[in-house]
Recover the amino acids of this structure.
């Protein structure tokens, strides 16, 4: 008999009855978009929950990245990481800018600040690091480089919802931080995103950019686009926010069971909760080493035959994909390449059943 599939993630969903109550309220007002009451409420509540002062909602995280680059008037070259989802680099390229890729830290997943410094040229105007898997970048080192070289910093914080660093939200570092609320994320609005700004003036500009550049009914300040979040998506977000602590606790439970079950398995390197941080347990990335009887790809394929759909986040590197390979002129990324060749993200979501998680663990351990 075919086994029930276990996917790498599954969106957390509120009770349908609660969602339909929100939908009925939308029908009652007749307001379905354009900064409606639920949109405004979600912005306020997210600011309070996340510990940030100015947040702008978007219809997705990619448009939020595009708006962030536009809002800071970024030109020329942007230094970023090859170890990320391709949207990070796409936003740079779509903006008419040149992505300059540098390696990740040895033994980790985030951009290496020492490599950032080496890659700066007279054309560099910004750094676009990624808090990969919700692990905060070395924000202090990046800030020091940015100050020294007069560069802007935009954090791709798609994985970093509710993550703190050294006692404050990681979203408060850099000039702007960009969130994704895609269905696969810790907090989702079906599709969605946001930008965290340092002041009201920057938020006003970002809000204008996502609304075609309008200042008022008859004044268009600049070339913008339509990046607004709808009331339906905001309704979903408000319901998700009511349960987000419960969702993160569920993820923590699953994370801890994996760690206890896989710790000490030869050739399996389990992830650690970062020091000085409040983690959100958004992913469970293991690294497959030489002492494991199978390669990462052999394990990946075998798990699929057993109905377990883990993912090789992030393989291949962005720099190995067609739109970016030709730009690199044989540059290599030793540490990012090593991670990409060995990483496997295991199924993780708040309501992952214990028997399903046991199936995942058993499938990994049984070849030992």
């Amino acid at each position: 008999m075919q086994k029930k599939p276990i996917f790498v993630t599954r969106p957390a969903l509120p009770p349908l009855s609660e969602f339909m109550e929100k939908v009925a309220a939308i029908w009652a007002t007749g307001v379905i978009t354009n900064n409606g009451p639920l949109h405004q409420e979600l912005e306020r509540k997210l600011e309070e929950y996340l510990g940030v002062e100015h947040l702008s909602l978007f219809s997705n995280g990619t448009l939020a990245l595009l708006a962030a680059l536009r809002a800071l008037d970024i030109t020329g070259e942007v230094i970023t990481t090859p170890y990320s989802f391709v949207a990070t680099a796409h936003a740079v390229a779509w903006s008419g800018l040149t992505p300059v890729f540098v390696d990740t830290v040895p033994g980790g997943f985030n951009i290496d600040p020492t490599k950032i410094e080496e890659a700066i040229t007279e054309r560099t105007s910004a750094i676009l690091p990624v808090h990969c898997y919700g692990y905060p970048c070395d924000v202090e080192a990046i800030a020091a480089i940015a100050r020294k070289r007069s560069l802007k910093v935009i954090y791709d914080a798609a994985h970093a919802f509710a993550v703190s660093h050294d006692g404050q939200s990681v979203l408060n570092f850099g000039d702007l931080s960009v969130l994704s609320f895609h269905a696969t994320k810790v907090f989702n609005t079906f599709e969605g995103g946001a930008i965290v700004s340092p002041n009201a003036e920057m938020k006003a500009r970002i809000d204008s950019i996502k609304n075609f550049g309008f200042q008022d009914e008859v004044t268009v300040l600049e070339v913008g686009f339509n990046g607004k979040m709808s009331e339906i998506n905001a309704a979903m977000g408000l319901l998700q926010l009511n349960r987000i602590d419960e969702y993160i606790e569920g993820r923590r439970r699953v994370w801890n069971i994996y760690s206890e079950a896989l710790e000490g398995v030869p050739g399996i390197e389990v992830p650690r909760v970062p020091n000085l941080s409040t983690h959100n347990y958004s992913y469970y990335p293991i690294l497959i080493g030489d002492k494991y009887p199978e390669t990462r790809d052999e394990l990946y394929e075998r798990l699929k035959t057993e109905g377990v759909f883990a993912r090789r986040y992030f393989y291949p590197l962005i720099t190995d994909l067609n739109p970016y390979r030709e730009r690199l002129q044989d540059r290599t990324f030793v540490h990012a390449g090593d991670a990409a060749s060995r990483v496997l993200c295991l199924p993780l979501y708040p309501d992952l059943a214990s028997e399903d998680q046991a199936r995942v663990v058993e499938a990994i351990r049984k070849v030992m």
